[in-house]
């Protein structure tokens, strides 16, 4: 059991010793962090006894919901049996073999191989090294450049932050590293005002073609994108976008990579987001929903082309002490099995996802400053705008979104502001009643806000 302390004590010790990620530590320490003590289903409780509805599944990761005792039991048993061994140097263990076998079953046909990491960022960095290694093996070592997108998010490591298109991250630390370039995000609402979404999808894909031609197809290793940009504001591309991207990548012999760290493991109603958008990547990166956040683990899924190249090529000099960690692997396996066997992913497609999408639009479309109300499965957003008729955004992008998010938080609802996009991605096990509670709280806050 954790030591019992008062909220003030937790806060004081946190401020004294803990540097928080993505936080302005000075102002956080002045306010004091909210202390989350326990969780169950879609709810969190803080140290003052408030019950909070978690509309973000943590950081888009607790797909199966909080408080699953069966996963805790799996972790305990695995820890007692084999707490650690590595998968370097010609060894393996049952937990990682069983997980890999299950992942090959739930992945689309052809994805027979996975490489394990501990996080989404590590999956992305692994993918970058893998792609470059693949082209070396193929005798095209000049194919090194990766194309990412502005406002894409691919993690916080130097590779992931470079490939991501968050300028506030690039500004700290002289990023991107060489060999990484970016194209505009496929945000129809802002960039496609005079076009249908379908026309805009083709145009946005052609920006990738333009970039390939600018760099030189013989130098471009891969194009990388999230099927739906998550942290960039739940940017859902028009239906024409991904098929056109796929055509372009094939035409110029550029590898196509989907970053499924958010979209993977049921978030869109399919196991993986690329299935929802009808394209086949060469590689896709995952983490988060793989273990529903119960333990850190990520996986890079490798399709036949790259797998054959890597296997024929010999050593891939890359890996982590905890690649395929037995306890994380055992918990991930139990989590993925539950997502499948309890029909959780199927329900996102057939029942709870469509319900959320219908109600999300009904509730939020009525507000004067809310527009582009959108979503798929259990990932959704709307944008706070100054003028719906002209699609004018507020000046000082992000200011109003942050205010709105803080009001939700005060009312015990967690939704996130990505700039002025307000986004939600609750646990996939959320019930219809819980959706109604989430929507009613958010609507009440918005009325106060408008
Ligand atoms: N890729 C995507 C699409 C993500 O959304 C994230 C995290 O939000 C990452 C990579 C990085 O994952 P992690 O924070 O586990 O390193």
UniProtKB/TrEMBL annotation:
Q: Which Pfam families match?
A: Aminotran_3
Tell me the GO molecular function terms: transaminase activity
- InterPro entries (alphabetical): Aminotrans_3, Aminotrans_3_PPA_site, PyrdxlP-dep_Trfase, PyrdxlP-dep_Trfase_major, PyrdxlP-dep_Trfase_small
Cross-referenced PROSITE patterns: AA_TRANSFER_CLASS_3
For activity, the cofactor(s) needed are: pyridoxal 5'-phosphate
Keyword set includes Chloroplast: no
- For this UniProt record, give its keywords in alphabetical order, as a comma-separated list: Aminotransferase, Pyridoxal phosphate, Transferase
What family is this?
Belongs to the class-III pyridoxal-phosphate-dependent aminotransferase family.
Q: Which NCBIfam families match?
A: PRK07480.1
Q: What is this protein called?
A: Aspartate aminotransferase family protein
